[in-house]
Design brief:
17% strand; alpha/beta; 14 helices; 546 residues; single chain
């Protein structure tokens, strides 16, 4: 500024204007050069966040990243996903699976329906893949409005194409789906692959080779699936049509060898060798006499069982690091192809898992927090950074994706049990449900989550469950505010704590959207009418790490 003032005083205004123009041009070129250099150097490491003020110029691309058997607590160990998705968009902190088992949960993803309406109840037999009607599913609805659809990784359990009949489920333009029971392997699995240039055919991938850890890691199932997803993004970089991708990553599923469960890649095999297994108040629960027979019959976990749970926990944390890498690589690919700011990205999981809570050493299915409470986060054009605790669930996946894809209601060939969260993201005070159904494999139990909200807070939070096969204490009732660890079954307390409205609500939910039933979305706990309850107001800042 001093130089400019001196020139002005001595030479007059005209030379100054020339000098200013020259200096401005030099500064612009320098800044542009620096920006381009930094963009080339760091762009792949730190993708630009989506412009939250922008709206999609057309239908957005939609990508769903789904993990397998991941708990809400394990979300804290996924820094890249948390930074690139959760902290760039909306995090739903009160999200549940409606059936805590892989195949039923994924069938809900494709249908927007509870198990009692899509008929998928189990991971095997006639109640798994054979029970699902693929001709009425989400990818077909998206294809009807112009989307190119692609699936990568685990599909529905029981999907068993053969070399002589490598059939692909309806609705997919490209497909790289796990075959039969090989999908339970981290190496040595088979995929049924189909794209625009290759008809469906089975591809066998190699087993692990510990002598070549770097080469072998290319075929670790999570890494291989992620690389195919990145390849799809790069091949479709110039497309004007939107695309939908379901990237179903097989970690930290307990399908690994021995008692230690998940199998990490070589690169991450020892990332969490010293991680401590969480031992919350319900871990190896001291008194389970008030629980249903499947729990009350469990002995206290031995030191050996606890050590095995500890090993499984560490291996699971190691295994999901490949998913963190996968999400990062996929977002980098979107950024480099110019698609990031017009892409909806969802991260979630199919169900949770037990690591010794309530004496349950491993597994899922049961109606407790560790099994049913899941991560769900979404970023993309027009999606603000916020945390919302409205009662949401897996039945909302399909309606939400269809909504963002601009699918007309007439094109959804099922009666949807869930609701799109898109209006909720835009206006968190939107009227919303206050109750959910939780179902179990082979109809072992039906449960209802019933919540009430006031002044932006959950003022009542009940979990009521009726078990069909328990020989003792067949009903459970927990006050989740006073007893978040579900230690005290209030069903048999004196005086009784059960609100009759919970029984009525559960009865309605069990048959909702069926002949003779009521609309699933209309069912409301503790109200005289079917009016939806308002949700609490969302926080304007990124959600805390779970």
């Amino acid at each position: 500024m001093y130089l400019l003032k001196r020139v002005y005083d001595q030479k007059g205004s005209a030379p100054v204007l020339v000098l200013i123009a020259v200096l401005g041009l030099i500064s612009f070129l320098a800044i542009s050069s620096t920006f381009n250099f930094k963009n080339k150097l760091f762009g792949s490491l730190y993708p630009k966040p989506a412009s939250h003020a922008a709206t999609a110029s057309a239908q957005p691309n939609i990508i769903v990243l789904m993990s397998d058997d991941q708990t809400l607590a394990q979300q804290a160990f996924l820094p890249k996903i948390n930074s690139l998705i959760r902290d760039q968009g909306t995090n739903f902190t009160n999200f549940f699976t409606t059936n805590s088992l892989c195949c039923p949960s994924r069938a809900t993803f494709l249908s927007g329906q509870y198990s009692h309406n899509n008929n998928v109840w189990d991971d095997q037999g006639t109640f798994a893949y054979p029970a699902f009607d693929n001709s009425k599913s989400l990818p077909l609805w998206l294809q009807s409005v112009g989307y190119t659809t692609a699936h990568f990784g685990k599909y529905l359990n029981g999907y068993t194409p053969t070399t002589s009949n490598p059939f692909v489920p309806a609705g997919w333009n490209e497909f790289y789906g796990g075959v039969g029971t090989t999908i339970y392997k981290y190496w040595g699995y088979t995929l049924n692959e189909m794209n625009a240039t290759q008809s469906a055919h089975l591809v066998q991938y190699p087993n692990d080779n510990s002598a070549d850890p770097v080469g072998s890691d290319k075929y670790h199932q999570v890494n291989l699936v992620a690389s195919k997803a990145v390849d799809f993004i790069n091949r479709h970089a110039s497309d004007t049509k939107p695309y939908f991708m379901w990237v179903a990553m097989f970690a930290p599923h307990e399908g690994g060898p021995g008692t230690n469960g998940a199998t990490p890649s070589h690169a991450h095999a020892h990332d969490f060798d010293t991680a401590i297994l969480p031992k919350n108040p319900n871990f190896n629960e001291a008194d389970v006499s008030d629980k249903p027979s499947m729990i009350s019959s469990q002995p206290l976990m031995t030191t050996k069982a606890i050590n095995q749970a500890q090993a499984r926990w560490r291996n699971a944390l190691d295994a999901i690091q490949s998913e963190d890498d996968a999400a990062n690589n996929i977002i980098n690919a979107l950024n480099s192809t110019g698609k990031l700011n017009n892409t909806i990205i969802i991260f979630t999981t199919d169900n949770g898992y037990f690591y010794g809570e309530h004496r349950w050493p491993k597994g899922k299915i049961l109606n407790y927090e560790e099994s049913i409470h899941l991560p769900f986060m979404i970023r993309g054009p027009g999606i603000p950074v916020q945390s919302i605790n409205a009662l949401t669930a897996t039945i909302d996946w399909a309606p939400t994706i269809a909504d963002y894809g601009q699918v007309p209601g007439a094109n959804t060939t099922r009666v949807l049990d869930g609701m799109s969260v898109k209006p909720l993201i835009a206006t968190p005070s939107t009227a919303w449900r206050n109750t959910l159904l939780v179902e179990a494999t082979t109809k072992e139990y039906f449960g209802v989550i019933a919540q009430t909200f006031s002044g932006g807070n959950i003022t009542g939070n009940w979990m009521y469950t009726e078990h069909a096969t328990s020989t003792t204490n067949p009903k459970e009732l927990y006050d989740k505010i006073a007893d978040p660890w579900e230690l005290n079954n209030l069903m048999y307390s004196d005086p009784p704590k059960l609100d009759p409205n919970l029984v009525t609500t559960l009865s309605q939910l069990k048959t909702c959207n069926q002949t003779g039933g009521v609309s699933c979305a209309s069912i409301s706990y503790a109200t005289a009418s079917a009016t939806l309850m308002p949700t609490p107001t969302a926080s304007s800042s990124a959600a805390p790490t779970p």
